[in-house]
Structure formats: structure tokens, C-alpha cells
């Protein structure tokens, strides 16, 4: 039988003030430890120290980003707030989409665990974001995954990518959530720091919105879902709040900190919660993610209007001999914490029994304002909950734009040698790892489950129906071109926003809300902090200009190995609304004889372009110009005149060449086009923003051009769809078979 | 209106879709709970797709022992039509209502794609409205979809015309003889890996071909 040493109680802590404590090993700085002692008026117990160390870690407390993230709140106008039913700070943002429906969505990171253990890291990333959505009172209805890896042909990418994709599929498919979008990006900078971000969308009736707070003295706290074990301890403090060092191979020392998931338990948890919500049995609810019970209890208590008492002995365990600190730090998956009125407890437990879900009353809401936790009859935690959950340290990290940035910007791509054979270059680009077909990845995901998916990859935006009777639904896209952000973090962040906004608009949906996952290097690097500050400002100012709010998001720092940070990667997710998803504009050239129109202006803008990267390994100069007013005019045209358009595709990486190739291959029809302007190379590969390719029935071409003119959107007829080749005037003929082979073969050849 | 049962096990995912398909075809779906043995007087039962019990032990193994499945087995014995889709097919094999087993896909990956299927027999209540040789397009989405049976069983299935659906234009998982679905000796119990309930509306699927299975059933029951 395992015996546990007597716990370090509050009484003991008060009596032994000079006992040394391993606060540095737990990630706390000297001044932070001193502050904890000041808050409590004594040294913390082991359990309290564990709680503060996880909750004050970078991942949980946002200590390096808080001062900057405030800018989102400062720039959100009343008008922008009008559709928000819950905003930054809640488990996820919630938006009113009309007809009494509310949609909640959020994107989060699970980067470090995915490098250490790709399958479980990615799987539990899905698990975590889904629970966040569940905790808002919503049924999760779709997922999407922005993924970034090292070079496609690197040996370690062959270790990480297949595991990540299998983990996302393995977990997401088992939950019955269609995967409707995402990205796969390869770049050297992610070689030791892959980015695995996970987005989830949920839907509910407005009145079913649940917020995470405990209120009402005497209300019970019920922990339900999986048992609590030793997995994942230190996930946030050890994994996500430090850089990797090179010793001992890929993250070898951090293996026990990766959480292990069981999607079956989570699927059952989802159905159990839906039934609990329907029956009105829940006053408040919180999911257990990073920092486990420490987080759930302190956040629930902070957000409420009383105190809380928790009896740790009541927590069902799956490992013998766990200490209070371990129980509080465990990141065992698939657990939720609900606040329930005493008269509803029996019914609550009965619903859990029906779903074979473990549920235990572990505490209650109390008078006063302390979070008190007992174990074996003694008090092991007695803290003011806000100091744990919200009043963590706030850092003003030094910010300094490095001199190297000037060289980067000065190194313009204007003189890069151009290709002699444009036809061959188009094929080469289409086959390159960042532009080729992602089917190898996306065919491992279920897109059909629940029967409401109106568009999924490779569409520009995933489209899901929310109301089966009216057809009302949402469109969502996630985007970020990190090269643009590296060249100019302010503009680059706005370009990421513009791209996601434009992708949503190409489906004909009206963009209404934004989420973000800000992936950056170490906050201890002043140049990284400069990138971060600039990106936050760019994104917030951009949102204000577009009139759509950031409703929530995530920050992931410490994405670097040694001194090499990743390119700054602020992933932006935009959500849009369609009154009827049946009216969405599908992607690609779908019919023969349609007129092909290019909307938007093309300029010579190759800075940070995929062509410069593929042909010359070049990154330098300025990113394409941002014109949010133009993006808005374009979006309004697409939404307002969507009945005119038989197909659409946004232009981004790889420029017009790639958009034409994809439109032909995805739609299944060739085209004959003439390039705009008199510089074919620029026309093909420039990555100017605010551009979309559309098709219209030939008899509608006049009307379409008139609508564009009226909307203030430049429009130009390029040609006609039809045939079995992409024929580009002055460049050559590319048979679809040849294009398809080039586009579809790359990833299977690399990953099997 | 003809009542068709749709079973929900812990971990079932496509029950809602199966119910929708029944409704769309003109029938009334009836929700059946795994722990009840009451079939509530339905005229047919659909065992839908998903990951019942997390595929623990073997896909469909635990679900095959649920109280509701004993009732399904008893009813099938006296001719009640049963359709097993994907995990449902796995459950019917585990329950002994269909021969053979479903193994891991040959490529070892989960595969989701729009798949062409050839209708091989119309002598089942689920395929009566088709013609032999018809090709339909229906999504497949699974990781353990490779049909396997020993040589003697395979020979029997082919000889007795009990292969109901065959993969056309490519086999997504390496199943023997390109088998996508089979039926019982009396033809009333059919199992298939692809998902007809996801091919009932061009808004959300690759075709409306899947509706044919549900319409066939309702037609057969109406005439009975």
C-alpha cells in the first residue's frame, strides 16, 4: 500500500516560515515568490505553491502579454460590442448570429506538447478547445486546425507531422466533429517548434449561454468526467512556459508533462453536458485544461460572489498516493467542474450515471472570499482566489526593434532573377510544399459527421449550417502569413486579418467576429516583444477599422529553441454569418463557359512571397500593402451580389497563378485566360491583397461588372472556363492532368 | 408512417444523420437506447456509425453485447430488416448477424472520401429500388474498414450473391474482393462501411444517391 507523507498544511506553513521551497524549479521568480508570501502573510503550503506556480506561469497568466492585450479592450467600440454576448476573458467568445442563435468559437495552441509527443499533444489540443466551447453551454459543431511544421522534407517533420495529423483525426473524428478547415505551412523556423493550433466552433440558443462563475452560497461544486491522475503535471509551467533546450534529443526530459487523451470519454462528456444543460441543472461551469483543478477552482471562485470550499479527498483518483499538490496540478483530460444548486444535485448525478460519467461533489460555494481546500481533515490551501487566477504578475517586458530588421526590410526582392519559363514555373510552384494539395492531411479527417457541412477543405472557408430549417449558418477561416509579419509585424498582422476576412467573404458570408492565436518566440527577447506589440496593435486597429471585434483568443510564447525564435505567427480566425448556407458561393471553376473575373488590384508586390521563397529562398523587403477599406468593399460586393457568382477563390500565397491552378483542379474545369497588366511574371506571382477570382454565367457578366463598379471594386474579365487545360495567353497550356499530378503528388511522396 | 429504429450507444456519432435520412425518405425515426431491450415496435432498425465504446477491445465488440442488440438479433431471426453502417456493420459482424470482420485499412490511415459503389444485388429490402450494376457515390470515412473473411466464407458469399456493394474506381482500404457491404442469408440484414446517410442532400454531401437505401426499405415495408 502506498503511504503518503503528511501534507504541508496551512498551520504547518505558518509554523515553519523559513522552510526552503522549490519555487524556482516550479518556474517562479524570486520576486513572485516574495509576493505570494506577502499575499498570504506566511509562506505558502506545498499545494498553494503548486497552484500559484501553475496559474502564474506564462501560459496561464499571460503575464508578458497582458499589458499589450489590453489594447484590444481599448479599441473595441460599442458598435463592435453589439453582437458580442461574451468576450475576452470568458472560456470562449460568443456572437449573436441572428434568429435567436449564438455561436461561440476560439482558437488555442498546443504547440510544445505536440513537439514532444505529436499524437497526444495534438489530440489533447483538440480535447481542450472542445471543452472550452462546451463550457459556454454550446454544442461543439466543427473544428479546424492551423498547423505549422519545419521543412517538408526534414527527417523530424516526418516524425512530427504524421503524428499530429493522426492525433487530430483520432481525437476529433471520435468526437463526431467535422473538420472543416485549417492550414498546413512548412517553414524552417518551425523545425524545433511546430505550431499546432486548434479552433472549435459551437452553437446554442442565446438563452442557453453559460458563464463560468460560482454564485449562491451553498451551491455545490461537482467534478465530473475522467479520474484525476499523474499525467500532464507541469504541462503549463514546464512545457508551455519555457523554451526547449537541445539536450538529450527532442524534449526528452519533458515527456511526463504531456497529457494523454481519451476521446470516447470526451464524447460521452459532451452528450452528458448537453443533457445537463437542456435540463437546466447547471448554474456555472468550467472545463479543466491547463493547470487542472487549480485553474478551475480559482477561476470559478474568482468569477463568483462568494468563497469556495473544496474537499480534495473527494476527487476520484486513478493513481495511488497522489499529494494535494499533484491533485491540484494534474492535467488529466476530459474533466469539467460544475456549480449546481443543492436541490438539483441528485438529478445532476443521475444524468451522469445514465452516461456512465463519473461525477462527484467535491465542494461548495461559501460565504466570505477565500478559496479553502482541505485534505485528510486539514486545510492545505487558503488563498484569495483572485490572486491565483487573475491578479498574477504583470510584466512590462523590454521592447526593442532589432537593427537587423532594417537589413531585412532593405533586402527587397526586386532584383531576384526571374524564371525563363513561366509555364514550368507555374508547375513548380503548384508542386511546392506550401502550395500543393493538402489532401494527404485533410482526407484523414471526417468532414461529414452531423450532416451540416456545406463546405470544407479545400474551400477558402469552412461553412457549417446551424439551423436545419432556415439554413442559417457560419463560415470560418484561419490564416497567417508569418513571412509578412516578420517583414512588418503591424502590417503583417493586418494582412492575416485581411486574409481570413477575405476567405470568409469569398463564401458570401458576412464577417462578424475574430479570434486569434498569437504564436511568438521568447518574451525575454526584446525584439520578439516588439513583434508582439506591433502585431497586437495591427490586429486591434484592423479589427476596429473593419468593425469586427476580437472575442477571445490565446497567446503562446516561448516558441523557440535556444536563441532562434519562430517567425512571428499571429494566426487570425474570422467567423462570418450566412442567412442560408445554400446560397454560399462554392470554390473553383465548376461550369464550362463561365466568365472569369479578377476582382481587385494587382501591383508588383513580391516581398515575403511564396515565389521568392521557393525560387530563391528569399525573405526580405516589404509585405504587400494593406488596404482594409478595399477588403471591406470587396466583402460587401461578394455578400451582396452572391447570387451572381457561380464560383470564387481568394488570392493569397502563390498569387494569381496558384488561384487559377486551384480553381481549375478543385472545380474540375479548365479555363482560357489573359493575364492583367503587361508583366506576366508579376501578374502570376505577385501577392497583392484584396483580390478574389470569381466566375459568373456569361449572360451575367455585365451585371457583375456593374455591381463591382458600383461597389468600388476594380474588376477585369480574364477569360472563360472550359476545356481540359489551363490556358494562359502568352504563357502556355497546362493540361489539367499534368497540373493535377504536380499538385497532388508532393505530400504523399513525402509522407506515405 | 413507417417507424424505423436508430440505436444510440455511448460513442455513436451518426445516429442523427441516420434519423435525418429516414425522415427525408418519408419515414419516422425512433431513437433506441443501447441499455433498453425494448424495440418500441419499430419495423426496421439502423445501427449507425461512430466509435461506440471508443472501439475498445475491438470496434463494435462491446456494443454487440448491449441489451438492445439481443432484441435486434431476436427480431432479425424472424425477418426484421436491419442496416448496419460503418461501426454498425462492425457491430453486426461481432453480433454474428453477418459473416466476416472489418480490419485496419491497408494504408493504416483514416480515410474520408467520396467513393463510387456498385450495387451488386437488389434482393435486399435496402437495395430493392436500384438496378444491379448501378453506381452510386457515397462517402466512406473510417480507419477499420477492410472487409475480411476466410476463403470458404468469401466463396459462399459470392456464390450466394450476398455481396451487396462493391467499391468501384478504387478500393479505399484493401478489403477482399473490393467488398463494401454484405447481407445475411435471407438478405434482410445488410452491413456496409460507406455512409449512405451522408449522401442525401447535395448541399452537404456528394450526391443524393444514399436516399435510395432508405426509400427502398420504406417501399418494401409499405408493400408488406
Automatic annotation (TrEMBL), chain B:
The listed locations are: Cytoplasm
What this protein is reported to do is described as: Part of the phosphoribosylformylglycinamidine synthase complex involved in the purines biosynthetic pathway. Catalyzes the ATP-dependent conversion of formylglycinamide ribonucleotide (FGAR) and glutamine to yield formylglycinamidine ribonucleotide (FGAM) and glutamate. The FGAM synthase complex is composed of three subunits. PurQ produces an ammonia molecule by converting glutamine to glutamate. PurL transfers the ammonia molecule to FGAR to form FGAM in an ATP-dependent manner.
Q: Name one GO biological process term.
A: 'de novo' IMP biosynthetic process
Location, primary (coarse class): cytoplasm
Q: Which GO terms describe its cellular component?
A: cytoplasm
One annotated GO molecular function is: ATP binding
Pfam families referenced in this protein's UniProt entry, alphabetically: GATase_5
The annotated subunit structure for this chain is:
Part of the FGAM synthase complex composed of 1 PurL, 1 PurQ and 2 PurS subunits.
Q: Which NCBIfam families does its entry note?
A: FGAM_synth_I, PRK03619.1
Which gene specifies this protein's sequence?
Answer: purQ
Q: Which InterPro entries match?
A: Class_I_gatase-like (IPR029062), PRibForGlyAmidine_synth_PurQ (IPR010075)
Name the active site residues: 86, 195, 197
Q: Tell me yes or no: is Transferase among this UniProt entry's keywords.
A: no
Reactions catalysed according to its record: L-glutamine + H2O = L-glutamate + NH4(+); N(2)-formyl-N(1)-(5-phospho-beta-D-ribosyl)glycinamide + L-glutamine + ATP + H2O = 2-formamido-N(1)-(5-O-phospho-beta-D-ribosyl)acetamidine + L-glutamate + ADP + phosphate + H(+)
EC number(s): the record gives 6.3.5.3, 3.5.1.2
Keyword annotations for this protein, in alphabetical order, are: ATP-binding, Cytoplasm, Glutamine amidotransferase, Hydrolase, Ligase, Nucleotide-binding, Purine biosynthesis
Spell out the protein name for this chain: Phosphoribosylformylglycinamidine synthase subunit PurQ
| Pathway stated in the Swiss-Prot or TrEMBL entry | Purine metabolism; IMP biosynthesis via de novo pathway; 5-amino-1-(5-phospho-D-ribosyl)imidazole from N(2)-formyl-N(1)-(5-phospho-D-ribosyl)glycinamide: step 1/2
Amino acid at each position: 500500500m502506498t503511504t503518503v507523507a503528511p501534507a504541508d498544511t496551512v498551520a504547518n506553513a505558518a509554523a515553519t516560515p523559513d522552510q526552503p521551497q522549490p519555487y524556482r524549479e516550479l518556474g517562479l521568480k524570486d520576486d513572485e515568490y516574495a509576493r505570494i508570501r506577502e499575499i498570504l502573510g506566511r509562506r505558502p503550503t506545498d499545494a498553494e505553491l503548486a497552484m500559484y506556480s501553475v496559474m502564474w506561469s506564462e501560459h496561464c497568466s499571460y503575464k508578458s502579454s497582458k499589458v499589450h492585450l489590453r489594447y484590444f479592450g481599448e479599441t473595441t467600440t460599442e458598435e463592435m460590442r453589439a453582437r458580442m454576448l461574451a468576450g475576452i476573458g470568458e472560456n470562449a467568445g460568443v456572437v449573436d448570429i441572428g434568429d435567436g442563435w449564438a455561436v461561440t468559437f476560439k482558437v488555442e495552441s498546443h504547440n510544445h506538447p505536440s513537439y514532444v509527443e505529436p499524437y497526444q499533444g495534438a489530440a489533447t489540443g483538440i480535447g481542450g478547445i472542445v471543452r472550452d466551447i462546451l463550457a459556454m453551454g454550446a454544442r461543439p459543431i466543427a473544428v479546424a486546425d492551423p498547423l505549422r511544421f519545419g521543412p517538408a522534407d526534414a527527417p523530424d517533420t516526418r516524425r512530427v507531422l504524421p503524428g499530429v495529423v493522426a492525433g487530430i483525426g483520432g481525437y476529433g473524428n471520435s468526437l463526431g466533429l467535422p473538420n472543416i478547415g485549417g492550414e498546413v505551412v512548412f517553414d524552417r523556423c518551425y523545425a524545433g517548434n511546430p505550431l499546432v493550433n486548434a479552433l472549435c466552433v459551437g452553437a446554442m440558443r442565446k438563452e442557453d449561454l453559460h458563464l463560468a462563475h460560482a454564485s449562491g452560497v451553498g451551491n455545490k461544486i461537482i467534478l465530473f468526467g475522467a479520474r484525476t491522475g499523474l499525467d500532464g503535471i507541469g504541462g503549463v509551467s514546464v512545457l508551455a512556459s519555457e523554451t526547449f533546450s537541445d539536450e538529450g534529443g527532442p524534449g526528452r526530459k519533458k515527456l511526463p508533462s504531456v497529457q494523454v487523451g481519451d476521446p470516447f470519454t470526451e464524447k460521452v462528456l459532451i452528450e452528458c453536458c448537453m443533457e445537463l444543460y437542456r435540463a437546466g441543472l447547471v448554474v456555472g461551469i468550467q472545463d479543466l485544461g491547463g493547470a487542472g483543478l487549480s485553474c478551475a477552482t480559482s477561476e470559478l471562485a474568482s468569477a463568483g460572489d462568494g468563497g469556495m470550499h473544496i474537499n480534495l479527498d473527494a476527487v476520484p483518483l486513478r493513481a495511488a498516493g497522489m499529494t494535494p499538490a499533484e491533485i491540484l496540478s494534474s492535467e488529466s483530460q476530459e474533466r469539467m467542474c460544475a456549480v449546481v444548486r443543492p436541490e438539483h444535485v441528485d438529478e445532476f448525478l443521475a444524468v451522469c450515471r445514465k452516461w456512465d460519467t463519473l461525477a462527484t461533489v467535491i465542494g461548495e460555494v461559501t460565504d466570505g472570499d477565500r478559496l479553502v481546500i482541505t485534505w485528510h481533515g486539514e486545510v492545505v490551501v487558503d488563498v484569495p482566489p483572485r490572486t491565483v487566477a487573475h491578479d498574477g504578475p504583470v510584466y512590462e517586458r523590454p521592447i526593442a526593434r532589432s537593427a537587423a530588421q532594417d537589413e531585412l526590410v532593405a533586402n527587397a526582392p526586386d532584383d531576384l532573377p526571374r524564371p525563363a519559363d513561366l509555364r514550368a514555373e507555374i508547375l513548380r510552384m503548384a508542386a511546392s510544399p506550401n502550395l500543393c494539395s493538402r489532401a494527404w492531411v485533410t482526407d484523414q479527417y471526417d468532414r461529414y459527421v452531423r450532416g451540416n457541412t456545406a463546405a470544407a477543405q479545400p474551400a477558402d472557408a469552412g461553412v457549417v449550417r446551424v439551423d436545419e430549417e432556415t439554413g442559417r449558418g457560419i463560415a470560418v477561416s484561419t490564416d497567417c502569413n508569418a513571412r509578412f509579419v516578420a517583414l512588418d509585424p503591424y502590417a503583417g498582422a493586418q494582412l492575416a486579418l485581411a486574409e481570413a476576412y477575405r476567405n470568409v467573404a469569398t463564401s458570401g458570408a458576412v464577417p462578424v467576429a475574430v479570434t486569434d492565436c498569437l504564436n511568438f518566440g521568447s518574451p525575454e527577447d526584446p525584439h520578439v516583444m516588439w513583434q508582439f506589440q506591433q502585431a497586437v496593435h495591427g490586429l486591434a486597429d484592423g479589427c476596429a477599422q473593419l468593425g469586427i471585434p476580437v472575442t477571445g483568443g490565446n497567446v503562446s510564447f516561448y516558441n523557440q529553441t535556444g536563441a532562434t525564435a519562430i517567425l512571428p505567427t499571429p494566426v487570425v480566425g474570422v467567423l462570418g454569418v450566412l442567412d442560408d448556407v445554400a446560397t454560399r458561393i462554392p470554390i473553383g471553376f465548376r461550369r464550362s463557359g463561365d466568365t472569369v473575373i479578377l476582382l481587385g488590384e494587382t501591383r508588383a508586390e513580391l516581398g515575403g512571397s511564396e515565389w521568392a521563397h521557393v525560387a530563391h529562398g528569399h525573405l526580405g523587403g516589404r509585405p504587400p500593402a494593406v488596404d482594409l477599406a478595399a477588403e471591406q468593399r470587396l466583402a460587401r460586393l461578394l455578400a451582396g451580389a452572391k447570387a451572381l457568382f457561380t464560383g470564387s477563390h481568394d488570392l493569397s500565397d502563390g498569387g494569381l497563378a496558384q488561384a487559377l491552378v486551384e480553381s481549375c483542379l478543385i472545380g474540375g474545369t479548365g479555363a482560357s485566360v489573359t493575364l492583367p497588366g503587361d508583366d506576366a511574371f508579376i501578374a502570376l506571382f505577385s501577392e497583392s491583397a484584396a483580390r478574389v477570382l470569381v466566375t459568373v454565367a456569361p449572360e451575367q457578366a455585365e451585371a457583375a461588372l456593374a455591381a463591382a463598379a458600383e461597389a468600388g471594386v476594380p474588376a477585369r474579365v480574364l477569360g472563360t472556363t472550359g476545356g481540359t487545360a489551363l490556358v494562359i495567353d502568352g504563357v502556355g497550356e497546362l493540361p489539367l492532368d499534368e497540373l493535377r499530378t504536380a499538385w497532388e503528388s508532393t505530400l504523399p511522396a513525402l509522407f506515405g | 408512417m413507417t417507424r424505423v429504429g436508430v440505436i444510440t450507444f455511448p460513442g455513436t456519432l451518426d445516429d442523427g444523420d441516420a434519423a435525418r435520412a429516414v425522415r427525408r425518405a418519408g419515414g419516422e425515426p425512433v431513437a433506441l437506447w443501447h441499455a433498453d431491450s425494448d424495440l418500441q415496435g419499430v419495423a426496421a432498425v439502423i445501427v449507425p456509425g461512430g466509435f461506440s465504446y471508443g472501439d475498445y477491445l475491438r470496434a463494435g465488440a462491446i456494443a454487440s453485447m448491449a441489451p438492445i442488440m439481443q432484441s435486434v438479433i431476436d427480431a432479425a431471426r424472424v425477418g426484421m430488416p436491419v442496416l448496419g453502417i460503418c461501426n454498425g456493420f462492425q457491430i453486426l459482424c461481432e453480433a454474428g448477424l453477418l459473416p466476416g470482420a472489418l480490419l485496419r485499412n491497408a494504408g493504416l490511415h483514416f480515410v474520408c472520401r467520396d467513393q463510387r459503389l456498385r450495387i451488386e444485388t437488389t434482393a435486399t429490402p435496402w437495395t430493392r429500388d436500384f438496378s444491379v450494376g448501378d453506381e452510386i457515390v457515397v462517402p466512406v470515412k473510417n480507419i477499420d474498414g477492410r472487409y475480411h473473411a476466410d476463403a470458404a466464407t468469401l466463396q459462399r458469399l459470392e456464390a450466394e450473391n450476398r455481396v451487396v456493394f462493391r467499391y468501384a474506381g478504387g478500393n479505399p482500404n484493401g478489403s477482399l474482393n473490393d467488398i463494401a457491404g454484405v447481407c445475411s442469408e435471407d438478405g434482410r440484414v445488410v452491413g456496409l462501411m460507406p455512409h449512405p446517410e451522408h449522401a442525401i442532400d447535395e448541399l452537404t454531401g456528394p450526391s443524393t444517391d444514399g436516399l435510395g437505401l432508405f426509400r427502398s426499405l420504406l417501399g418494401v415495408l409499405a408493400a408488406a
